[in-house]
Amino acid sequence: xxxxxxxxxxxxxxxxxxxxxxxxxxxxxxxxxxxxxxxxxxxxxxxxxxxxxxxxxxxxxxxxxxxxxxxxxxxxxxxxxxxxxxxxxxxxxxxxxxxxxxxxxxxxxxxxxxxxxxxxxxxxxxxxxxxxxxxxxxxxxxxxxxxxxxxxxxxxxxxxxxxxxxxxxxxxxxxxxxxxxxxxxxxxxxxxxxxxxxxxxxxxxxxxxxxxxxxxxxxxxxxxxxxxxxxxxxxxxxxxxxxxxxxxxxxxxxxxxxxxxxxxxxxxxxxxxxxxxxxxxxxxxxxxxxxxxxxxxxxxxxxxxxxxxxxxxxxxxxxxxxxxxxxxxxxxxxxxxxxxxxxxxxxxxxxxxxxxxxxxxxxxxxxxxxxxxxxxxxxxxxxxxxxxxxxxxxx
Length: 395
Fold this sequence. Notes:
Layout: H1 21-35, E1 67-76, E2 81-89, H2 95-108, E3 113-123, E4 126-128, H3 132-144, H4 146-154, E5 161-170, E6 173-181, H5 188-205, E7 211-213, H6 226-231, E8 234-243, H7 245-252, H8 256-273, H9 282-293, H10 300-303, E9 307-312, E10 318-327, H11 339-347, H12 356-380, H13 383-390
Antiparallel strand pairs: 1-2, 3-6, 3-8, 4-6, 4-7, 5-6, 8-10, 9-10
């Protein structure tokens, strides 16, 4: 094999304007020539590629995901109030049907109560000192200069607000956790830029000019962590409902006492496994909602963590709550303004500024519907049969 045989063949790009139908068609033709695969469906889309700078590079076409509608889901939240029809983009048969069933149950029982209890988005730089004493001293210096550091950070953004800086020391390393609120944006890039400006201010103004690395990984961006479960990343949102024992039996075919008994078994299993979620499958509903509404789907990695708390009430009813401590979502920026994604956000009245808490509550209420439906299916014994009936598209 010669050097020429190993020559890299780059994907074609238009240096003047790479976001056009012609540029996308050129890349499809290139891929077809190189692989022999015809990209007929990838090339069918309805929007102008000029909308895409900032969302994707080397635009070639679309990956179409089927969209189902579930609901109505009645929510009695602080921000989300009324009956909602939830767009869910998925390729998993039974998912929409299952969530739809849970939404019916919750709605017939009066709906879901929801509330956002905390907001926070982080960056976690690390300053490298000569020893632990210097690290502690720098942390104290940062505490005493917080207002100046905040000014430097907030000068880079109109929406981000620096709330606090926490510090954690390992040997000569000072790990900092900058906590922000970010308006209607998820805010990871926003707080990255703000934290860089803050760290440069610290480095410039501290007499020792300490070296820093912008990310020390304790913000655990797009990764689950116990720290974020405790301290919050994104939105900490809770959905709760009191479910009538009679309605539960009529719709789900299970009784509250048996459901609570199985919840105890499931709780012990999650503890033994060291799971980040003692519920059933919150990632399912969140992923389907994220794809439909233009969220950064990788944020499901942290958003799926959840804590279920339930009570069997003395009157035979069932109290069920789910707390999502790290829900990272947006109603503005990123992929939310793309045409189909914006339409899906408009379906639930959440596109644009001023709707982030409402959308967070809708996400949590949707998760609760899915938890109730799947848990009931497992207890009743129709979990596998439902997948056989609705989830098989193979001969």
